[in-house]
Fold:
Amino acid sequence: MIKSKKLSKLQNLNHAFFNRAGGKSTGIFKSLNCGPGSNDNKRNILKNLNIVKKKINTTAKKIVLLKQVHSNKFHFISKNTQVPKKKLEGDALITNRTNLPIAVLTADCAPILIHDKKTKMIAAIHAGWKGAYKGIIQSVINFMIKKGCSSNNITAVIGPCISVNNYEVKEDFIKKFIKKDKKNVLFFKKTKDKNYFSLGKYIHHQLKALDIKNIDVIKKDTFVLKNNFFSARRSIRLNENDYGRNISVIMIN
Structure:
């Protein structure tokens, strides 16, 4: 369980970025797999989610998760709306409700946790390259500002994700980004005729472009085995047929 120093300083807020340690799953899902979309035993996943609930000291019935689709779609759960029984489809959750843990699942993509200290509004974003490219971060921040948040009051934390050293990409991937914006060339590097993409740097740039100044970055590469995170790319390299998901959660107390 990893915490952001910046978010930890704030009152009435609980959050954590979890790796794969401390759960009930076995085999390739060992041990804190929180991904219902994986082929893991569903009972073990529920047990793991309950472990996470205890770790963040919540009495809520459940942690609200999404059916993530690598989009720019988000959902706002206000104080006046019911918590949806069915899983919502999208890649970010926003709420101003207390004791409602919202979370995203990742396995190399970047989790982003956001808090506005004045409105007490929070967000959890799943940002892979597709979601970031499509504008999920801009969509969430713009919505929060419309709801009374301010870029000066927002703290954004980029959680553990795959680092540039392990994120190899093809030429057409680079062309796609540069076609959108020539400045995107800054997020790529070439080593020994191979191209690599910095997802974390790309996300950091987007947050700064939205005038978010208070940014924390958890520098943990999910691909590196010793860091003990689930990694889709590492699982593919090992010819495993599936992989677990890391959970990142935030809640207003």
Observations:
- The first helix runs from residue 5 to 8.
- The chain has one domain: 5-162+215-252.
- The domain at 5-162+215-252 is CATH 3.60.140.10 (CNF1/YfiH-like putative cysteine hydrolases).
- Helices lie at 5-8, 42-55, 129-134, 136-146, 171-180, 199-209, 232-237.
